[in-house]
């Protein structure tokens, strides 16, 4: 199938960065944004200042308030908005086309992964999942970034990865779509925890131990949900987990730091904090873990902190007092 034109749904930082990456790869790109003023700025000034400051965008990237047919569709809206964004699109734009899902989160209420939402809303679309250690500012600026692109057909996934690969943005093809999705969602939960540990000044040793145990917990969740634990050794697992749990560029890590300082979710949101996908994903992940009978104490701990049922110091003390057993 031809893979020359790309439509990116979502004009935030991540959507704009992915549109820029596709343009750098030589594709003709249309970025679908919410309002005409934003589209006009992108088309005339080649910037999206609200989300990416003065970063210059390539002229082969145009913007519009409505989606047009394209060979590749990239959905780049927040995880909790995916269903409504898909509902607003003409089904013909998605039918039998590769749709790349880039949001990292589980849907509130349904407990669905992003590809399950796509299957509900556009059953004839061909699902792919993009995840890995990446920040929008780095991707848009052309800084070296490697990610995972997972799909069900190996040949199609490789072709799609090649079509989006540029001099600095390198998608590596994989076949474990479920594992990549689950890892991308859960790493945001663990980033909240790591940020909270640092915000409470509990030390780098505690944070490192948390990351190691998060990796093990994530493997249990991935396996229980039908993915492969070996996926976690790559970019979508260890790579993304490490980046998100250690960098102040991470929105989830920043949000967690505020929690660790004793701020409430409501106060953090009222202060104008940027969207942290882990806040919505945590209760969903906790419900999934319980339904699957997976031992997930870290997810439960973050859920307790978000729900103001415990402070971070109490939670960490509880984790440290769990019965000793052989490390798995």
List keywords for this structure.
alpha/beta; 15 helices; single chain; Rossmann fold; eight-stranded mixed β-sheet; N-(1-d-carboxylethyl)-l-norvaline Dehydrogenase, domain 2; globular; 328 residues; 8 strands; 12% strand; 2 domains
Describe it for me?
By secondary structure, the chain is of the alpha/beta class. It folds into two domains: 5-175, Rossmann fold (3-Layer(aba) Sandwich), CATH 3.40.50; 178-320, N-(1-d-carboxylethyl)-l-norvaline Dehydrogenase, domain 2 (Orthogonal Bundle), CATH 1.10.1040. The protein has 15 helices and eight strands. It has an eight-stranded mixed β-sheet, with helices on both faces. Strand 1 (5-9), helix 1 (13-24) and strand 2 form a beta-alpha-beta unit. Helix 8 packs parallel to helix 10 (235-246) and helix 14 (297-306) runs antiparallel to helix 15. It is globular, with a radius of gyration of 19 Å. The N and C termini lie far apart (44 Å). The mean pLDDT is 94.
What is CATH's topology name of the largest domain? Rossmann fold
Proportion of residues in β-strands? 5-15%
> CATH homologous superfamily of the largest domain, by name?
NAD(P)-binding Rossmann-like Domain
Helix-strand makeup class: alpha/beta
- The residue fraction in helices comes out at 40-55%
Task: Compute the separation of the termini in Å.
Answer: 44 Å
Number of helices: 15
């Amino acid at each position: 199938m031809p893979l020359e034109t790309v439509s990116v749904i979502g004009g935030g930082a991540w959507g704009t960065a992915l549109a820029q990456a596709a343009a750098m790869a030589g594709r003709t790109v249309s970025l679908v944004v919410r309002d005409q003023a934003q589209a006009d700025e992108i088309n005339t000034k080649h910037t999206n200042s609200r989300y990416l400051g003065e970063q210059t965008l390539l002229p082969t990237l145009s913007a519009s308030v409505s989606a047009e047919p394209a060979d590749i569709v990239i959905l780049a809206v927040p995880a909790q908005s995916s269903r409504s964004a898909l509902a607003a699109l003409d089904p013909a734009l998605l039918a039998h086309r590769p749709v790349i899902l880039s949001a990292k989160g589980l849907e509130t209420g349904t407990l669905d992964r992003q590809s399950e939402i796509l299957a509900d809303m556009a059953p004839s679309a061909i699902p792919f999942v993009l995840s890995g250690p990446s920040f929008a500012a780095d991707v848009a600026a052309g800084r070296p970034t490697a990610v995972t692109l997972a799909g069900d057909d190996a040949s199609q996934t490789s072709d799609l990865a090649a079509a989006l690969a540029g001099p600095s943005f390198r998608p590596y093809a994989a076949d474990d779509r479920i594992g990549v999705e689950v890892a991308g969602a859960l790493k945001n939960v663990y980033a909240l925890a790591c940020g909270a540990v640092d915000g409470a000044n509990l030390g780098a040793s505690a944070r490192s131990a948390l990351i190691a145990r998060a990796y093990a917990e994530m493997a249990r969740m991935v396996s229980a949900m039908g993915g492969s634990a070996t996926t976690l050794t790559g970019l979508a697992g260890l790579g993304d987990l490490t980046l998100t749990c250690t960098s102040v560029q991470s929105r989830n890590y920043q949000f967690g730091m505020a929690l660790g300082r004793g701020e409430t979710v409501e106060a953090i949101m009222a202060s104008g904090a940027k969207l942290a996908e882990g806040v919505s994903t945590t209760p969903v992940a906790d419900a999934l873990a319980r339904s699957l009978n997976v031992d997930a104490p870290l997810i439960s701990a973050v859920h307790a902190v978000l729900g103001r049922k415990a402070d971070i110091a109490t939670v960490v003390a509880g984790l440290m007092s769990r019965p000793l057993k052989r490390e798995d």
